[in-house]
Amino acid sequence: MRAVLEARSGLAPEQIDTLCAFGQALIEKNKVMNLTAITEPQAVAELHFLDCIALLQAEDFSGKRVIDVGCGAGFPGVPLKIAEPSIRLTLLDSLAKRMTGLREILPQPFLPQLGVEAEVVTARAEEFAQPRREQYDIATSRAVARLNILSELCLPYVKVGGAFLAMKGALAGEEMEEAKRAVALLGGTIERVYEYPIQDAVHKAVVIRKIKSTPLKYPRAFAKIKKTPL
Predict the structure, then answer these.
(1) How far is CA 202 from the centre of its chain?
(2) Is the CB of residue 142 less than 8 Å from the CB of residue 52?
């Protein structure tokens, strides 16, 4: 894990120390709780850490208030916070077991030394959006849902002028076409796609800029979002 990060992350030694410690804690916690299917250390470094911190090249995260929607085991939020400590991070997921795992991992002594602090929230994205509407500079999400559905869950959190970064793979182009109407209705516009190599694949971050407020009727209840996507 360390060799991969030292060679390819561009991070300071103390940040690499923290990423490695977080990765090891995640692997250990995964033995008793299903947090991630990726547990081989080099794969964790490449498919989790390098994949997540690549977002720092797609948007300026410095000093920004960020919400990671559907964060799962803490991706991309925790690696982003380690790589850019000035982020004010909220980790959001509806699965209580995962969030309990994160709450147990994050306070460990190696993390606060670099200011890796996060608000860990167990809630459904469409419900938590009501008290946190348009309060974040950036929303991120990774492998949660197709882009038309994901946009309705994430864009309501973003301030006008802010951005929603959706981490996607080979189907990004198809999903972008499918999501154009939804993105426009929700107050956004697809600004660009940031592409970067991870192992033998090209990963993509779809950058959606918030250009006007999201109508108050969105997000809808998830059953409606799933049944009749925008």
Answers:
(1) 18
(2) yes
CA-nearest of 164, 172, 104, 160 to 134 is 160
**CA–CA gap between residue 230 and residue 208 (Å, rounded):** 16
What's the chain's average pLDDT?
92
Return the axis-axis angle of helices 96-105 and 13-30, rounded to nearest 10°.
Answer: 130
CA pair distance 226, 220, nearest whole angstrom: 10
Reply yes or no: is the peptide bond before residue 76 cis, omega within 30 of 0: yes
Question: Residue 33 phi/psi, 5° resolution?
Answer: -150, 130
Q: Which of 86-100, 103-117, 158-172, 209-223 has the lowest mean pLDDT?
A: 103-117
d(CA 29, CA 218): 36
List, as own/partner pairs, every contact residues 173-180 make where C-beta atoms lie below 8 angstroms and the sequence separation is at least 24, other chains included.
Answer: 175/146, 175/147, 175/148, 175/206, 176/147, 176/206, 178/146, 178/147, 178/148, 179/146, 179/147, 179/148, 179/150, 179/151
pTM of the full structure: 0.94
- Whether the pLDDT of residue 49 is over 70: the answer is yes
Model pLDDT for residues 97-118, shown as the tens digit of each residue = 889 888 888 876 555 544 578 9
pLDDT digit string (tens) for 178-200? 999 999 999 999 999 999 999 98
